[in-house]
Amino acid sequence: MSDTRIAVIAIIVENIDSVEKMNAILSSYGEHIIGRMGIPHREKNINVISVVLDAPSDVISSLSGKIGMLDGISSKTLYSKV
Q: CATH number of the domain that 41 lies in?
């Protein structure tokens, strides 16, 4: 088994129609997710979500890439040095 890393994926949702697909993707990686926090910004009509993971680097990259490919959703990942 490969080593795991702690990472945070920051997600900005601008297209509410993509939320169902995003949630399905996140659910499929549920075993690696430590926690998740979502904050709606009603004035701008967007949602900001942070997802904390403990997973191998390739799993983290795969999840971030799949989320970022959804229409109206942006994602960036920050990795711990540990």
A: 3.30.70.1150
